[in-house]
């Protein structure tokens, strides 16, 4: 499999879906929102973008299966397979409220091993992409994680839980601790964008729990290819399908230590 060539073709599919999303953004109305669960929004834009991505990616690599957020393929995901892992519109809540921080995120993985990652953030027209062994890039410029060595030099990103509040108290303790130890924390509302920004050196680290594989697959590849480190909350490698992630530059281990102590 020529991963570089496949990445370039994937970019074309992603940009077509992203163009559709931006076209719909101009006329989107709040009454078109649906609820998958409490605080978990979806719209026809998510579903249609996913259908377009699945159609395009199926033509590129017919042997690959799909893990998709909106389940439009009807497939039962096999985490051990060769999978396209798709979030057609990461940051749906931002999108429906007119906040311009969202993206299309597509990853290809063999089991837990990321092979390709493509993220397009249309509002800044930033295309983040990479493939295993080929580096990570944004609009043709090679990416490298931040050179910061200590948590005290870092700006971090995270997400706030919108369900499963049983761990809320511990999560707030982590926030309080990191507020005192860093330059600050940001919550943009789109995990794939957060991860792309870690790869680009804009954030020194990112952590979150209650995530899905489609939130992470592309961004994980980008961070690894940009020289960063990715683990789950226990320091292991079960982040892609395990639901929690810690990612960053050299501050990763210090960030992980805070999380492990509290969480």
Explain what this protein looks like in three dimensions.
- The chain has 263 residues and is of the alpha+beta class.
- Helix content is 35%, strand content 26%.
- It has helices at residues 3-25, 44-60, 92-96, 168-181, 191-199, 213-225, 252-262, and strands at residues 34-37, 40-42, 65-68, 82-90, 103-110, 113-121, 126-131, 135-138, 141-142, 155-158, 184-186, 205-209, 229-231, 244-248.
- The strands form three sheets. A seven-stranded mixed sheet has the order 3-4-5-6-7-8-9, with helices on both faces. It has a five-stranded mixed sheet with strand order 11-10-12-14-13, with helices on both faces.
- A hairpin with a 2-residue loop joins strand 5 (103-110) and strand 6 (113-121).
- Helix 4 (168-181) packs antiparallel against helix 7 and helix 5 (191-199) packs parallel to helix 6 (213-225).
């Amino acid at each position: 499999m020529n991963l570089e060539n496949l990445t370039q073709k994937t970019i074309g599919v992603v940009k077509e879906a992203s163009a559709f999303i931006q076209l719909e953004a101009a006329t989107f109305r709040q009454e078109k929102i649906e609820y998958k669960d409490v605080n978990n929004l979806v719209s026809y834009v998510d579903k249609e973008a996913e259908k377009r991505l699945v159609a395009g990616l199926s033509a590129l690599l017919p042997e690959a299966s799909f893990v998709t957020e909106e389940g439009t393929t009807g497939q039962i995901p096999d985490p051990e397979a060769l999978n396209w892992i798709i979030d057609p519109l990461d940051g749906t809540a931002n999108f429906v409220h007119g906040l311009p921080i969202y993206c299309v995120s597509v990853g290809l993985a063999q089991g837990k091993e990321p092979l390709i990652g493509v993220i397009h953030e249309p509002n800044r027209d930033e295309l983040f992409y990479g493939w295993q062994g080929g580096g990570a890039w944004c609009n043709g410029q090679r990416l490298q994680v931040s050179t910061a060595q200590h948590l005290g030099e870092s700006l971090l990103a995270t997400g706030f839980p919108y369900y499963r509040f049983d761990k809320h108290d511990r999560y707030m303790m982590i926030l309080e601790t990191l507020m005192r130890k860093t330059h600050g924390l940001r919550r943009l509302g789109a995990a794939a964008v957060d991860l792309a920004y870690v790869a680009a050196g804009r954030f020194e680290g990112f952590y979150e729990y209650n995530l899905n594989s489609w939130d992470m697959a592309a961004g994980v590849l980008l961070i690894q290819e940009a020289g960063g480190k990715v683990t789950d909350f226990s320091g292991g490698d079960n982040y892609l399908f395990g639901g929690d992630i810690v990612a960053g530059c050299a501050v990763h281990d210090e960030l992980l230590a805070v999380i492990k102590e509290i969480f």
